[in-house]
Write a structure and sequence with these properties.
Blueprint lengths: L13 E12 L2 E7 L12 E11 L5 E8 L10 E7 L5 H7 L6 E9 L10 E7 L3 H12 L7 E8 L8 H10 L3 E7 L9 E2 L4 H7 L7 E6 L2 H7 L14 H5 L7 E3 L1
Parallel strand pairs: 7-8, 7-11, 8-9, 9-10, 11-12
Antiparallel strand pairs: 1-2, 1-6, 2-5, 3-4, 3-6
Length: about 260
């Protein structure tokens, strides 16, 4: 049986038009790209897409591109658009390209690439450890769980940032945690303000021990963030982009490779 036509193509670069952009905080923007609403975007939870932008010509006059992977934070079932949450770096070729786009401009996208094949109730308790924009794949999974009344998965999120103002989509996350009792969130920041009530400093072994489900067969810990955080918490992915061995805090606490997934 023929399925609904998909807007994305894993083997071909597709142009998506920028519909709108908005500032999320002092260094992050939300970009909304549009597509034919009669088609389906075509990505499963949890997936990323590959983007490319021209950065000049090589010695042979051929176009050179910068490539970056991003995780859409919009619902895969959204009709006619998808959203990317991007941190803007002064020297970041892709983020600078994105922030200079205007409504009507296009971005070339290929994908999706499935990072974790999520299925409802696949684990009793999912722990999430995120840093910065590492929140994006977590949001995909969180949204998939909470919108499905038959999915009884418990979620615990430990989210680290430099300062309170760096916490991406905090208002949305706070509303979700109040609205859904199966979602628990703990924030920690390196630079606190006077009225800050969350955690202080880097993610510690004690924070993981207190905030994450204990290591067992029905537990899964998802990890996504900067390389330094990944190495400290779980070890980074292997050079061939496979999961690699579990190391760091999670290994010390007894989590095995079957209990940890690194984005």
């Amino acid at each position: 049986r023929k399925g609904k036509k998909k807007a994305l193509n894993p083997d071909k670069w597709i142009k998506f038009e920028l519909q709108d952009t908005s500032r999320v905080n002092h260094n992050s923007h939300l970009f909304r790209f549009s597509f034919d609403p009669s088609t389906k975007l075509g990505f499963d939870i949890a997936s990323c897409i590959l983007t490319r932008a021209p950065v000049g010509l090589d010695d042979n006059g051929k176009t050179e591109y910068v490539l970056r992977s991003y995780t859409p934070i919009s619902d895969p079932e959204c009709k006619g658009y998808f959203d990317l949450l991007v941190k803007i770096y002064p020297e970041g070729k892709m983020s600078q390209h994105l922030v200079n786009l205007r409504p009507g401009d296009v971005l070339e996208v290929k994908g999706p690439k499935v990072k974790l094949q999520y299925t409802p109730n696949m684990k009793k308790h999912i722990g999430m450890i995120a840093g910065g924009t590492g929140i994006t794949p977590m949001l995909q999974v969180i949204n998939a769980i909470i919108k499905n009344p038959d999915d009884k998965t418990q979620i615990s999120l430990l989210y680290a940032n430099i300062s309170p103002e760096d916490i991406l989509l905090k208002q949305k996350l706070d509303i979700l945690s109040v609205s859904y009792p199966n979602l628990k969130i703990y924030y920690t920041v390196e630079n606190q303000t006077n009225n800050w009530k969350g955690g202080k400093g880097y993610i510690t072994q004690n924070m993981v021990e207190k905030g994450m489900p204990s290591p067992r067969e029905d537990t899964l810990i998802l990890v996504c963030g900067p390389s330094g955080m990944m190495n400290h918490i779980s070890g980074d992915n292997a050079k061939d982009y496979s999961q690699g061995e579990v190391s760091g805090v999670l290994k010390e606490l007894g989590y095995t490779e079957e209990m940890v997934h690194k984005f």
